[in-house]
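All the exercises in this workshop are built on plain-text protein records. Instead of coordinates, the fold is spelled out as a row of discrete tokens. Once this layout is familiar, the rest of the handout is easier to follow. The record below serves as our worked example for the rest of this section.
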Amino acid sequence: MDLKTAEASLIHAGQRLDRHQLIAGTEGNLSIRLEDGTVLITGSGAFKGELTERDLLLISLEGEVVEQRARAMSSESEAHLTCYRLRPDVHAVVHAHPVHAVALMLRGEGLEAAPLAEAAYAFGSVPTAPFSVPGTAEGGKAVATWIGKREAVLLENHGAVTVGARMDDALSRMEILDAVARTVLLAGGTGRMQPVQSDRVRSIANAAIRAGVKREAVEAWAVGVKKLS
């Protein structure tokens, strides 16, 4: 993706996350890997719903600033760079604080096995990475635990990270992740949701894999959902 297209994509994504209340104020970070391997990322302290080109900066995969604009580099950049280093197929990363997903974590639950077909089709099983202090190098280490095997990861007591080949993919996964979490909360938790018949779980899993979702993530989802039955 070229620079101008990436700028427009990040601005649109920030507006969408803000409109859907997946971030508040200056929360969250967005990034896109460009054709030359550099990363366009939102800077520190930027209101994501009101992004302009001056709120974005270019950095290298090593974390060096290539083009400084109005904003300083975000302290959360390392988590984004970790995703790109581990996943050559990933060209967009979204870090947000989806309220329903965070609320589910605070209840001691996660999204490893949400018994909903849309969860399987969007990302399969979503693990919860161990707690790391936001804005430190620990954030990259926490993401590294799972992002090589998953398209979405919950960050304990913090938020979530989703990735994709395009910004639309990463953005869609974040929106679906919070919608699934909201459904689980409204149902009273995964333990109180209606079980999915074993043969249907297998059919959903096979279809999700054919659709391109990582096999390991889908298989982990299927195993977890069957245990709930």
About this structure: The domain at 3-228 is CATH 3.40.225.10 (L-fuculose-1-phosphate Aldolase). The radius of gyration is 17 Å. The first strand starts at residue 29 and ends at 33.
